[in-house]
Amino acid sequence: MPVRALVDAAALFAIEENSLRVALTRLRAVGTLERDERGEYRLGKRAQAVQHQVVSWRRLEEQVRPWQGGWIAVSTAGLSRGARSELRRRERAFRFFGFRELAPGLEVRPDNLAMSLANLRRELASLGLDAGAALLAVAELDAATDSRARGLWDTRRLVADYRRSAAELAASEARLPALSARAAMVESFLLGGRVIRQLVLDPLLPEPIIGVAERRALVGAMRRYDKLGHACWRSFFADYRLTSLRAPVDSKIHQETETRISA
Length: 263
Hints:
The protein is of the alpha+beta class. It contains 10 helices and 6 strands, in the order H-H-E-E-H-E-H-E-E-H-E-H-H-H-H-H. The chain has 3 domains: about 5-45, no CATH class; about 55-150, 2-Layer Sandwich (Alpha-Beta Plaits), CATH 3.30.70; about 155-260, no CATH class. Helix 4 crosses helix 5 and helix 9 (about 215-240) crosses helix 10 (about 250-260).
């Protein structure tokens, strides 16, 4: 994106141009952003691991398989506490993949991810897990430990959050056509971004730890809302010829909403 597009987009959210330019400079300095020879900005190498996780939300249910009762464990007991930044990266890796602390130095999650242990290690390492961490597949826990492990996640809150977000998406979907173009851009960006973050950080728990129907319903609602959000931003993208950011026009709802918002 050219800096002018970033400045104009930031203005929608009451972010001043000078503040944006300072933020761009700082993000470039740490490698989160890069600038090409035309002066246009894109995500840098340091952001690629997180971006890979973020864009995966549409395929959330493809990332899991039926649970056979086993667990994945990561032992960090032998690792140095290290610098605070290293600990934050390690915690970030665990958060993206839904691990919880079962005992000091031992993080666990159900073994229901549709990827090999080697691939999971690579994903965790890309997000900041230390190379010396031990990654284990555990076929069975004793009854008491298994019960404790299943209770590490607040499943009632997760389900309540699924339902609340789905209701908010539905309410916004009904409201967007009546909003001004500017207001629709802001609302769709903020709400859509929050729900995508919720999905990306979801622990992807299996049955019977949690009922998965509510999560699937939220993913479906967000897919629908994502198309509406792209419709809200389409004229902005067109103004800057940002065609790579356009969503495919493949639904009647998307086309109808775009027409009403443009009008």
